[in-house]
Amino acid sequence: MARIRLDHIRHAYSADLARSGNYALREVDHEFEDGGAYALLGPSGCGKTTLLNIISGLLTPSEGHVRFGDRDVTLLSPEARNIAQVFQFPVVYDTMTVRENLAFPLKNRKVPKSEIDRRVTDMLQRIGLAEKADRRAQGLTADEKQKISLGRGLVRSDVNAILFDEPLTVIDPHMKWQLRSQLKELHRQFRMTMVYVTHDQTEALTFADKVVVMYDGEVVQIGTPEELFERPKHTFVGYFIGSPGMNVLTCAVEGTDALVSGTRIAIPGGARPTKGAAKTELGIRPEFVRLVPRGQGMPVTVTRVEDIGSERIVRADFNGQKLVAIVGEGEGLPAEADVVFDPSALNLYADSWLVDRS
Ligand code: ATP
């Protein structure tokens, strides 16, 4: 295993695209710690796969360097980097049995037979294919074939890192949970550096110790799931993570208060916006917007209530701005409601970036 360092990486898919400033990755400078479990999370087209392929060596970046430990690997092939990769769609050897598929990368590396048997048998259990160990891969479902791909990547413990590109796309939803927790368990046990690309926040937040959030070719925040939830550094992170995402309300700043559509809201620790900001906004997650009886908070007009079983999602108009609240099971929903914001959950943004209050 090795620490993976990305030094000022930029990538354009052609010289023409570079000339017109059309970069798939605009500037990525980041270090993946040895043995960490990372997710690369972001919307379609933000550059996740491009970045993963630059780490694996399938792509050479237009600019910048990739380092494994102290070694510059920017120009090395994927094989020379000693990386295991699991793609969105299964890559299996159809004529081999499940067991042979898993043993293949180990045989290639001249691992002793008894060790191969031990590791493969263990992995067959983990991916739930022990009973089909001696079946040819050919006749298996896409779901099962993808489990073989996962197993083949995970069975190698000598690699510098394991890279996953949306590996659970073809997996049945029930099995997804199980495989995800197996991945986590394997990570705990073997402490392999894992980088997992997904656009699904649940997948990212349950798998990773650290989530790298990408937007439009750049990394906008790296943090634990808790940090991303509590202190999104950019309004995009607040909105993208969470279900529904964070409310972002246009506001003005007066003294240490925020003024949202004429309503004064005190910011704990003081507002202190960056001087000269063209736009200031207040972020509050729907989980921290409480609905109270009329007269006890700030007036809103409820426009829609969606009951999703365990909770209700309330959409409201707050002096011309849209506001979403989550009302938990057993909590009352007044017919005529006002809202109260939990002060500790307020975040102030200047030109979309969090104003640090620490
Ligand atoms: P998705 O989740 O849809 O796979 P992504 O976040 O992985 O998206 P990338 O596939 O890395 O994003 O793409 C980043 C940008 O680079 C996009 O604008 C995409 O259109 C562009 N791109 C990707 N591959 C190529 C290519 N081979 N040639 C030209 N442009 C490309």
Primary descriptors:
single chain, alpha+beta, Rossmann fold, 3 domains, 6-stranded antiparallel sheet, globular, binds adenosine-5'-triphosphate, cell membrane, ABC_transpr_FbpC, ATP binding, ABC-type ferric iron transporter activity, OB_MalK-like
Describe this structure in words.
- The protein has 358 residues and is of the alpha+beta class.
- It folds into three domains: 154 residues, P-loop containing nucleotide triphosphate hydrolases (Rossmann fold), CATH 3.40.50; 60 residues, no CATH class; 114 residues, Nucleic acid-binding proteins (OB fold (Dihydrolipoamide Acetyltransferase, E2P), Beta Barrel), CATH 2.40.50.
- The strands form five sheets. Strands 6-7-8-3-9-10 form a six-stranded mixed sheet, sandwiched between helices. Strands 13-12-11-14-21-22 form a six-stranded antiparallel sheet. Strands 2-1-4-5 form a four-stranded antiparallel sheet, with helices on one face.
- Strand 21 and strand 22 form a beta hairpin.
- The longest helix is centred in the middle third of the chain and has 18 residues.
- The radius of gyration is 24 Å and the shape is globular.
- The two termini are 36 Å apart.
- The mean pLDDT is 91.
- The site of adenosine-5'-triphosphate (ATP) has 11 residues, from helix 2.
